[in-house]
């Protein structure tokens, strides 16, 4: 009995990352915290993807007394984009609250760090509770507002993602060039050339697939325009990146960065 209580206690404390405490290797609090928050995000992502599956809505409509004419909104609430907005709203609310209470927490010595690194049972219950409550919000204005938030957040995420990719490709290019200049090992140059051609080939294949799957219909003028603009920008920037003036002011500039993005 005491062993069972000890195992259950792990879910309440900062040993939750080990699940059974002694069955799995222990790790630092900060590492286990990142791991568990990542698992939470992954689980919500999987559930959101499942909710977007049209077969889920069709399955729910076959359940007697669930999606009748009077209760049609129930199926709309628990499937489709409405469900995804509510799930993401709940998770955003949870992390927003935690970001507020964790202001100025700089080390594990702060008493609030125990809340951040532990009490996982209560955190999960809180997330589930917020999600359940979010599904009781039937207002379509709620969905519209969160559509705006999602649009703005998606744009910001793409900008940050592109910035990180540019920095990664730039650092990658610089490290391999420095490696060749310092050691004279031609493997760095061959690797750089191979990676550049590989990414350009993948970019070309991706562009062709975009045309085939998203711009093949004559009515898809917007899709054709966007794919074409993206391809033209890639070609133009590739030419600009190897111009003498650019190489003079930024010697580490090259062709690797563009296809990597």
Structural account:
- The chain is 74% helix and 0% strand.
- The protein has 261 residues and is mainly α.
- It folds into 2 domains: 137 residues, no CATH class; 114 residues, no CATH class.
- Helix 2 packs antiparallel against helix 5, helix 5 crosses helix 8 and helix 9 packs antiparallel against helix 10.
- The longest helix has 44 residues.
- The N terminus is likely disordered.
What's the structural blueprint in terms of helices and strands?
Blueprint: H1 2-9, H2 29-51, H3 54-61, H4 72-77, H5 80-101, H6 111-117, H7 120-134, H8 140-183, H9 186-214, H10 221-241, H11 244-249, H12 257-260
Helix pairs in contact: 2-5, 5-7, 5-8, 8-9, 9-10
Main attributes of the structure:
transmembrane; disordered N terminus; mainly alpha; signal; 2 domains; single chain; 74% helix; TDE1/TMS
Fraction of residues in helix: over 70%
What is Rg? 25 Å
Principal-axis shape: flat
Mean model confidence by pLDDT: 78
Task: Name the assembly state.
Answer: single chain
Q: What proportion of the residues form beta strands (DSSP E)? A: under 5%
The count of domains is 2
Sheet with the most strands, sense and barrel status = none
Count of DSSP H/I helices: 12
Low-pLDDT runs of 5+ residues are 1-5, 20-25
Tally of extended strands? 0
Order of helices and strands: HHHHHHHHHHHH
| Separation, N- and C-terminal Cα atoms | 56 Å
Counting helices, strands and paired strands, the structural category is: mainly alpha
């Amino acid at each position: 009995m005491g062993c069972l209580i000890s195992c259950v206690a792990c879910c309440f404390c900062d040993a939750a990352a080990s699940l059974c405490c002694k069955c799995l290797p222990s790790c630092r609090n900060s590492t286990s915290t990142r791991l568990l928050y990542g698992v939470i995000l992954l689980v919500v992502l999987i559930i959101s993807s499942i909710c977007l599956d049209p077969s889920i809505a069709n399955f729910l409509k076959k359940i007697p007394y669930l999606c009748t004419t009077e209760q049609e909104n129930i199926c709309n609430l628990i499937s489709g984009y409405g469900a995804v907005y509510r799930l993401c709203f709940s998770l955003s609310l949870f992390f927003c609250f935690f970001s507020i209470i964790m202001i100025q927490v700089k080390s594990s010595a702060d008493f609030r760090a125990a809340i951040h690194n532990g009490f996982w049972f209560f955190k999960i219950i809180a997330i589930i509770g917020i999600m359940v409550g979010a599904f009781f919000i039937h207002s379509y204005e709620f969905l519209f507002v969160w559509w705006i938030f999602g649009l703005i957040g998606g744009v910001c995420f793409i900008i940050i993602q592109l910035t990180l990719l540019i920095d990664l490709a730039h650092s990658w290019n610089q490290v391999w060039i420095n490696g060749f200049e310092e050691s004279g090992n031609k493997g760095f140059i061959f690797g750089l050339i191979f990676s550049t051609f590989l990414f350009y080939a993948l970019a070309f294949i991706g562009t062709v697939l975009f045309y085939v799957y998203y711009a093949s219909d004559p009515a898809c003028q917007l899709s054709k325009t966007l794919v074409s603009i993206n391809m033209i920008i890639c070609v133009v920037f590739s030419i600009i990146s190897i111009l003498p003036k650019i190489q003079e002011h930024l010697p580490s500039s090259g062709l690797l960065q563009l296809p990597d993005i």
